[in-house]
Amino acid sequence: MRRTTAFPFLVLPDSLVRTGGWMIGERGSPLAPVADILEGWDYQCDLELNVEIEVDFQGAADALEIPSEELRLEAVLKVGTGSGTMPRRIEILDRVVLNSGRAEAKLEATLDSSNLSGRLLIECGIVLGKPAGNAGGISPRWQASRLWSERRDVLIEDGGASRFPIESVSFKRSFPGAPFVAAPWYIDWQPGMWRLDFGGSVRLYVNSDFPGVGERVVEGDPLTLQAILADVMRQMISLAVTSADCDEMLEDLGEGSVGHQVRNWMDLAFPGQSASSIASLAEHRPGRFSAAILSAAEVSMDP
Amino acid sequence: MVALLSRLSPVGVQVVLSEASEEPLSVARIPQDLLNRGEHLSFASSGGTVNRESAFRIAASLRNIASQYGFPSESDTQQRGAFDRDASIALAQMEELLSGEALRDDVWACLTTVMAPDVVAWRFPSPSPERFHGGVRNAFQRLWVRGVTLDRGEGNERRWELLGCLKEDAMVQIFERPAIAANAPLARAIAEAWLLVKGRFSKGLRELIFRTAIKMIRLRNEIVDLSALEEDGLQCEVLRVFGNAEEWVEKEL
Fold it and tell me: What is the pLDDT of residues A203-239, one digit of tens each?
């Protein structure tokens, strides 16, 4: 429990409370231990989380100087979201009464990810469920007196590994009249935006009018993903290497930027080669240039 | 499906403000180059649908509300207060803002700095940078937070009454204290209690009593988890604190 507050009443020492691990994951999937960063989250990925808690009840009664038969505790699971030292929004999502007959509980919650933002602050706390009649002189006397807590801060966006931004849309509706309306996919990006965050600046639109493509992407069909990734790599590498100062420019860009990603792809597809030699290959041996990128795209998908 | 809104990085806010520092901000003065390049602007990488029009719609709605209270001409305190109330109500109900996107500072930074800086400059003549950067003092973000927090819920005949019962100083006391602002039931309970009790205090003492009560609530919340109380219990507790604050102020004066 955080000890920044000087409590005017007795509280529970950590030794009397055992938490059986904090688990989190996508709803319907096996949960994993809570870590500092939750990979793969987005607004459509609803979450489940749980934590098991067990109190040495007799020890708690002694520590709080409340007869165990009168002691009523409540375990609460709170989840906060939004950036800042304090989350922008905190809610209690589960609560369980603990007494001498039930000293352990599993607190759990399902999180609607569309309401989450940036991070999760998960707190498991124990408060006084009900004031006791025969409490000691410095025993907690107010309902909901804070007696113990433990928390985890989990980053869910803005710093986790970048994910390739993908959106499934009908090209006929979204891009009517465009010459690529029958294409299976379209990569939206603007040349020259090398400094920008890759995840927020490059977007792959998968054509939902094109039968089967969206399903193959979702299912992770290797050939489909390889072709798409190679297309992105080819577009970006082709343009980057035509810049007069490509090597210097890409060296100067930070992790997570478009340029940094392009640099990584160039190193993967054309190890040890300068931008000018890659540009020369693209101009004089376009077949080899493309095949090298296709090959690198396959390598990139290896776990 | 979540509407993904455009985001402006803190650096982007600085760039815009520095380039527009010479004259009052207006949409026309926002460097179009910034928008065209998309520099400092981004969207969430996945999880919803990018809707480039959403932010423009929100801005247009705010501009429309402002125009009912004198925008773009100069306004008085009463007009600006009325704008705050109406804008809070509008923002709290906007479909595009019913998601985690509205909890992001960079989304609000974009709305204020890129989409409707003219409304910000009208609402806050000579606005400080914090009115544009995302956060509790962002010109529109603060109004959205007030709206969603003090909403009594659809179907309530006096759904938005709480927005009108708190003066600006009281709003600041609640919504610029993170531990209170993050706890919507507590913030709402404070507003509900104030509505009940403020009539018994002389106008000259109201601000002091409210400030004192907020300090007491914050301290109480350090040792008692007020969010763990049921609605009735929380209301009683807050009312009790207002009584204590009244006693304390009377004694001190």
Answer: 788 888 888 888 888 788 899 989 999 999 999 999 9
Contact B228 A92 (CB under 8 A): yes
C-alpha A51/C-alpha A60 separation (Å) is 20
What structural domains and CATH numbers belong to chain A? 14-155 (2.60.40), 166-300 (no CATH)
Predicted pLDDT at B32 = 56
B181-227 pLDDT, tens per residue? 899 999 999 999 999 999 998 888 999 999 999 989 988 998 999 99
Best B5, B42, B103 member to test A by mutation, with max A CBs in 10 Å, is: B103
Detail the DSSP E strand segments found in chain B. 2-4, 7-8, 41-42, 48-50
ipTM of the complex: 0.90
**Domain carrying residue B243:** 166-253
CA distances (Å), origin A119, targets A156, A215, B210, B252: 5, 30, 32, 43
Query: In chain A, which ranges are E strands?
Result: 17-26, 32-33, 47-55, 72-81, 89-98, 104-111, 119-130, 146-155, 166-169, 185-188, 203-207
A79-93, A144-158, A253-267, B77-91: which has the minimum mean pLDDT?
A253-267
Whether residue A90 and residue B182 make contact (CB cut-off 8 A), yes or no, is yes
